[in-house]
Design a protein that fits this description.
One of its GO terms (molecular function) is calcium channel activity. The protein is built from eleven helices and four strands. The chain has 321 residues and is mainly alpha-helical. It has one domain: NCX, central ion-binding region (A middle domain of Talin 1). The strands form two sheets. The protein has a two-stranded antiparallel sheet with strand order 1-4. The protein is globular and about 55 Å long.
Length: 321
């Protein structure tokens, strides 16, 4: 039964993402807002809903390590697998505004997460011992930064409306009602499909005797990141590269600031040393992808393959540790 639910979840994710991309792209044109802004906000929030649901539920139940491992695993997956797969479909071109502002901001907040996760103690980390706590004040700091990010993004969108009016693009324009319908149906499919995939994949993993930590960092993280993967790949296939890249960067920002912010604000999150190491890996992955994107302003297929190989190495590392 779990295998049938897994297949049904994939179908809902794929069709949901298809509708969601069409509806979101149409809304961007109707509102005269650049696709990159829609990707950073509406699409990023929609595809981050599974992570939000899983992490907040885990925090409420006191299973805090699942909340953090889910976010870290999802963000690493987004950078290496989602962008890697998008590059295999079509070379991914990132706008200069994204490389200048949002992408560096995503690296900046990952560094803050590392400092908070490590209790600002390099000596403690190097010793490889002890527990770490992401407290309520850290969660409130993330929520404050999230509010600043949203304000800046909306301000940029309003300032950029005249630029979109001057562009001549070939796109599928839907009526406002139909656009809203596409978004709602797509979002429902994404969330429901993500839930089915996570639940069924976790049950299958448990049946094979895999640990809960491994499941949280890999199976659950992969499952909750499937919306980002499917949405971005579908967007890349339709030539909506701005939507694809904006979705990944926006989702990573949402995951850290909103999801960990809400989770830590509910109850302090107790971590072990592996969470600190995984945060370091996230920062390194972010820098590698950023350098690849900014060097030629485009991520090509060979870089996409390298990203996927890097993720495979990370997966093996988590499996063996």
């Amino acid at each position: 039964m779990d295998y049938l639910l897994l297949i049904l979840g994939f179908i809902l994710l794929i069709k949901g993402a298809d509708y969601f991309v069409d509806g979101s792209s149409s809304v961007a044109k109707l509102l005269k807002v650049p696709s990159i802004i829609i990707g950073l906000t509406v699409v990023a929030f929609g595809t981050s809903m599974p992570e939000l649901s899983v992490s907040v539920t885990a925090a409420i139940k006191g299973n805090n390590d699942l909340a953090v491992s889910n976010v870290l695993g999802s963000n690493i997956f987004n950078l290496l697998v989602v962008l890697g797969c998008c590059a295999l479909v079509n070379p991914v071109r990132a706008k200069w505004s994204l490389l200048k502002k949002e992408f560096p901001f995503s690296i900046f907040i990952a560094v803050i997460l590392l400092l908070l996760n490590s209790d600002f103690s390099i000596t403690k980390v190097l010793s490889g011992e002890g527990k770490y706590v992401l407290g309520r004040w850290g969660g409130l700091l993330f929520l404050a930064l999230f509010a600043v990010f949203l304000y800046a993004t909306v301000k940029t969108a309003l300032r950029s409306r005249h630029e979109v009016m001057e562009e001549e693009e070939d796109y599928k324009l839907l009526s406002p009602a139909k656009s809203a319908g596409y978004i709602l149906v797509g979002l429902a499919g994404i969330i429901w499909g993500g839930d089915l995939v996570v639940d069924s994949a976790s049950s299958i993993a448990v049946s094979f005797g895999l640990s809960q930590t491994f499941i949280g960092l890999t199976i659950v993280a992969l499952g909750t990141s499937l919306p980002e993967l499917v949405t971005s790949v579908v967007a890349a296939g339709k030539g909506e590269n701005d939507l694809a890249v904006g979705n990944v960067v926006g989702s990573n920002i949402f995951n850290i600031l909103l999801i960990l912010g809400v989770s830590a604000a509910i109850t302090p999150i107790v971590l072990d040393i592996t969470a600190v190491y995984d945060t370091m890996i996230l920062i390194m992955a972010s820098i590698i992808v950023y350098v690849a994107a900014i060097s030629k302003r485009e991520i090509h297929r060979k870089e996409g393959v390298l990203f996927l190989v890097a993720y495979l190495a990370f997966f093996i590392y988590v499996l063996l540790r």
